[in-house]
Amino acid sequence: MSPASLVIAPSPPWHAASVCADIQSRLVPPIAYQGGRLEVYGQSIPKDEVGGDLADLAADGRDVVAYVADVSGHGLRAGVLMGMIKTAIRYGLLLGQPLAKLLNDINLVLPALKDSNMFATLAALRFDDSNQVEYLSAGHVPLLHYRRRYGDVVRHSMSQFPLGLFTNAAYASRRIPYEAGDVFALITDGVVEAGEDRDADSGLEQLARILRDSPAHPLSEIVEAMHAEAQRHGPQPDDQTVLLIRAMTESGADARDLAPGPSSDALEVKWRKLLDELAEELAQDEETKS
After folding, report:
1. Which of 21, 68, 246, 275 lies at a C-alpha separation of 20 to 30 Å from 172?
2. For residue 218, what are the contacts with CB-CB under 8 A and spacing of at least 6?
3. Distances from the Cα of 41 to the Cα of 34, 69, 87, 242, angstroms
4. Which residues pair with 32 in a beta bridge?
5. Can you give the pLDDT at residue 266?
6. Per-residue confidence at 149, pLDDT binned at 50, 70, 90?
7. Quick one: CA dihedral 242, 154, 257, 254, positive or negative?
């Protein structure tokens, strides 16, 4: 066959959008987990084909780490840095590093791997066999904590720098008590600051209202409601991520069956009323017999 007769098939076209979408689906898939004392569901919606938001979960027996991160900006460059952070965190957890040390180490090496104006905020929860969860935040929006016992939502935050800004920054964690039926919401600022005139405080309050109104609903429905609330304020301005963690009963029973319970005072009044009614019925029986 002569060279002139050779037919070289053209290479398939390279589509940047397709590659970005593949990166997004592999690095930030929806999270659905249930095991031991926890039920988890999360979803990230990028502004472009690939975003800088990250939601992840790593479980090793009773030790469960759930976290969200938000790289400044969005698009491919933010997605690449997001992938680096996910790899570093997964590897550090594999080595058994404490959360604070893991973030200190990432913060030391990150500046050399990125543009000077890029950084990442992060919030993480680490559950173990105790009734307290370890919480750490690096410049991230507050953690929302629905408390079943009181039927309220508490905000938790920490004044610590985002990752990648200052190599001498030091990170620390603290512990938060929780009970079965409690729900934690890890979110990114794209959810709470959606809309031109919407400030973070009002956005957080709207998400807290959703938690208070539907704490026993399936987590996927609550996540969907939170995304819908953000999208209600106009076109999506940023990546939007919600990761919910519900505490289950020790036996593993579904905590969704646990509606907010009455207070101990209310229970005491109820039982006293029942006992009084029973005593009255017994007295009437005695009178009838006599």
Report:
1. 246
2. 41, 256
3. 9, 16, 21, 8
4. 41
5. 45
6. very high
7. positive
- Domain boundaries along the sequence of the chain: 20-259, 262-290
Indicate the residue type of 50.
V
Q: Are 120 and 71 in contact (CB under 8 A)?
A: yes
Tell me the two tokens of residue 210.
Answer: 């959703």
User: CATH homologous superfamily of domain 20-259?
Assistant: PPM-type phosphatase domain (3.60.40.10)
Distance between CA atoms of residues 228 and 242, nearest Å: 11
- pLDDT tens column, 108-118: 999 888 888 89
- 25, 88, 18: which is closest to 51 by C-alpha? 25
What whole-number distance in Å separates Cα of residue 67 and Cα of residue 135? 10
Residue given tokens 């919910």 in the structure block: 244
SS3 per-residue string spanning the chain: CCHHHCCCCCCCCCCHHHHHHHHHHHHCCCEEEEECCEEEEEEEECCCCCCCEEEEEEEECCEEEEEEEEECCCCHHHHHHHHHHHHHHHHHHHCCCCHHHHHHHHHHHHHHHCCCCCCEEEEEEEECCCCEEEEEEECCCCEEEEECCCCEEEEECCCCCCECCCCCCCCCCEEEECCCCCEEEEECHHHHCCCCCCCHHHHHHHHHHHHHHCCCCCHHHHHHHHHHHHHCCCCCCCCEEEEEEEECCCCCCCHHHCCCCCCHHHHHHHHHHHHHHHHHHHHHHHHHHC
Mean of the per-residue pLDDT values of the chain: 82
Q: pLDDT (tens digit, 9 = 90+) per residue, 23-77? A: 666 777 889 999 889 999 999 888 766 677 899 999 998 899 999 999 987 777 8
Instruction: Output the pTM of the full model.
Output: 0.79
